[in-house]
Amino acid sequence: xxxxxxxxxxxxxxxxxxxxxxxxxxxxxxxxxxxxxxxxxxxxxxxxxxxxxxxxxxxxxxxxxxxxxxxxxxxxxxxxxxxxxxxxxxx
Amino acid sequence: xxxxxxxxxxxxxxxxxxxxxxxxxxxxxxxxxxxxxxxxxxxxxxxxxxxxxxxxxxxxxxxxxxxxxxxxxxxxxxxxxxxxxxxxxxxxxxxxxxxxxxxxxxxxxxxxxxxxxxxxxxxxxxxxxxxxxxxxxxxxxxxxxxxxx
Amino acid sequence: xxxxxxxxxxxxxxxxxxxxxxxxxxxxxxxxxxxxxxxxxxxxxxxxxxxxxxxxxxxxxxxxxxxxxxxxxxxxxxxxxxxxxxxxxxxxxxxxxxxxxxxxxxxxxxxxxxxxx
Lengths: 91, 149, 117
Known about the structure:
B: 5 helices
């Protein structure tokens, strides 16, 4: 009973994914209104040659702050899981 | 590992660290930046752990050194974010000033290192965070699953 | 009607996500489950990059740039963040798997189900 429900829902989801992959915009001609403004003005406003680097640290710097926090928390969790407990010696 | 692997990895670690530092520092002119450069430096330390064994590396590079580097990198990043608080939260307050403040002419040009504003110093901070964090993960997991003595 | 039959990268993304979901549903070994989650993350990153391709485009960097239109730079910036988050999630999952093996002695998800003291 559980196996047949899983197979039916998986096939519905894969059919939806294939239908939406055929109905999306043609590959190579995307709609681009925000990116035209960014490509024209990124070199004058921030003064760096690389547009991708300006977007990561200047136009969308808040996402980079969130990602640095996620990396910090994950490393703290891994280091905490592998600590050894010191055995207490009683006199 | 055998003597050939240890000698070659002693020689290669210099080139790997130099290439990682190059990718981090030229983030505003070429593809790359803080995140791939930090991953290259962490892979150099992983090469040392594979060639020499984790107990030998742990005598020099302890795990609390990586924790100090990680926390100071994050503090520098947040301090630069609060630097231009007069206009906005992540404002680029170093454009026009003599530190990293040149503005290049419009269109294709050979790159200038002294451009970029505050995003160049943020690249260095993120490079420190990512390299210290990923090296700490690799070292702790290699110590926990190695041969017990 | 927008769309065409030649969207081959988007069909590849649909195939990757379908295979990854089938692995997650049907496997019992915990290491294979982690591999299925990693394939799902790769599929999503591929979808983000192929959304922003312009036909006959060049890299969006102005240093020694040749002639031509530039591809869209915003999906590339979002994919950088997504890759780093995937690495952090995989590291945490694998370390929890090592602790489960030490505690119960088995990495089959049906056998190591009850919590023991």
